[in-house]
Amino acid sequence: EVQLVESGGGLVQPGGSLRLSCAASGFTFSSYWMSWVRQAPGKGLEWVANIKQDGSEKYYVDSVKGRFTISRDNAKNSLYLQMNSLRAEDTAVYYCARYRSGGSSLDYWGQGTLVTVSS
Amino acid sequence: DIQMTQSPSTLSASVGDRVTITCRASQSISSWLAWYQQKPGKAPKLLIYKASSLESGVPSRFSGSGSGTEFTLTISSLQPDDFATYYCQHSWTFGQGTKVEIK
Questions:
Q1: Each residue of A59-95: pLDDT tens digit?
Q2: SS percent in chain B: helix, strand, coil, step 5
Q3: Contact B93 A47 (CB under 8 A)
């Protein structure tokens, strides 16, 4: 059974940092593109970043470029999101998701982890 | 960047109704469109990929159609479990969502 389990969320002050983790199981992690998607309270879905199977390609939404870094450790079946210089507008539930093989849709999602940026 | 526009934003319907949600792309995206269902406090669930392919395990009352710039998600007979918010997605862009409410 495919499982994605996020951790690392919490309350952080503006300007602070947080590292999210996503533990993957039930599939060959190293064979899939992976993504982070977020959802601000009461709002819609926003793609944040994605990363190629071997980590050689990474893409970010403009609003997080230079502040967030996506990475992965295929030996540990884990995906990460390092978030620096956090702002109030980064407050959201962050989901880890797997890209469907050969396509651009996201076929498995974690349960999400809440990041709150507030003083 | 390609923009995805869903309509309507909110839809009121009754159990058994046929429901259609539309998603328009600002330029042609061929058939590279997915549909998701999200319930409050839960992660989104993939329903349809490549515009019309039903994800495994998704009930057959859900169907997708379209290509180019206009796409639809149809629920042939709305069930109590279908009251949720639905999103379309192309690449890294999601539509703004359509909330399906009980009439």
A1: 999 999 999 999 999 999 999 999 999 999 999 999 9
A2: 5, 50, 45
A3: yes
